[in-house]
Amino acid sequence: MNRTRKPLSEADADPLGLSSTESSLSADDGVTEQSNASGYLLTLYVASLTPRSIVAIQSIKEFCERHLRGQYSLEIVDIYEYPSLAKSDQIIAAPTLIKRLPLPLRRLIGDMTDEHRVLVGLDLRAREEDGWSLHRPT
Prior knowledge:
Blueprint: E1 31-34, E2 40-46, H1 51-67, E3 72-78, H2 83-88, E4 96-101, E5 106-109, H3 115-121, E6 125-128, E7 131-134
Parallel strand pairs: 2-3
Antiparallel strand pairs: 1-3, 2-4, 4-5, 6-7
Region (Disordered): 1-32
Pfam family, one: KaiB
Protein name: Thiol-disulfide isomerase
């Protein structure tokens, strides 16, 4: 599932300061941030490079580097550029983050800046009666 893409245009080639070895925009189906493929397989659907999409991309990249370093693969897909991918994953709003692996599949829709929400959504934190505890599925 990891694929590297070619830039759409020079202006869009590196809007978030990503190096070409990490990711790039493409004319075939999105952006891929590649780390070690074992572990978490994530897809972030965004609506072009709007301010909200840029914040979502930056937030998820920072989150992944902080909590999943070396254990994730992140694919970023523009729903306007690739509507067939959005349709096949039944995307109804953007941004939407899909955790494909490890199972179970999970979806987060909306604000990606709330770190606790993302931790729980990716099943990295389990809710306990009196608080939060770090939990990483094996």
